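The aim of this short unit is practical: by the end, you should be able to scan a pair of folded records and say something sensible about each. We start with the first protein, listed as its amino acid sequence and then its structure tokens.
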Amino acid sequence: MKADEIKPLPALENVALEPVGFGAASKLRKEHPLLMWAKKRVGELADELRPQIASCGVLSDAALSTIVRLLRSGLTTRRRRGRRPSADITAAVADWNAGMRGKRLYEKHIAGYLKLSDWRRRDKGQRLLSAIRTRRRRDKYAPVNKDLESPNGSLFPEQK
């Protein structure tokens, strides 16, 4: 496909995303103009690719699913694997690195710290310190991969 053949997105400035289901704000209705355009465009791409794939001979289902996976990976943004870091622990680590220690750190990052019994204070304090140590250790040895960050957070690279 040549650069002059790339079809632009339809005008979607005035179209609002409508929530569907139980709090699923990111879902789109089937009649949404973006989905209609995407379905049409994917059909056009499939029509373009079908003869090229057929020229390779008969492909197995595994090979076709690999092609579909590659197409899908080109549309979606990559993210880090694993559990998303907790914002509470991130804030506690930032305060720890800024030099905050002891009771001030606990009061700020443990809800209702002053109302807890001595045993619960000790337990919650130890848990917080353990989480801080674990986060610092993981951040220390974590590889930095800038490829996982989307520069403009857009689905399509030409949009800004």
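Turning to the second protein, read its sequence before its tokens, just as you did above.
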Amino acid sequence: MSPPLRVERNPRSGAVLLEDGSKGGAERLLTGDLTWEVQDTCVRCVAAPCPTFRGTRIETGKAHPEEVLHEVDFSRANLSERELARAQTQLKNGLRVEGRVRWVPNRGPAGAARILEVRRLLTAR
């Protein structure tokens, strides 16, 4: 039997937090699918995870602060190799995508990571 799932909504940001009750710090989903403007910060680190990306949530009529993202995962976007290469190149100037952020504890020697899981590409900046 799997542990119970706890669901919380942050009243300020509207982000949804899902956490299973397992020990050892389970992965958590920090947002539902949202539209993001994501850009490479050109920061590189010796130890992972590294705050390599900056993400801004785009929602009609609301201003949201930028968020530090450690990884951008395109695996769920069903892109061809050519589309993937183009998207990764466009990250330097900014790329608008639809996706969700997942928090993963102990992602590397430097600790936890915030990973943007891209579901769909929208536009380049």
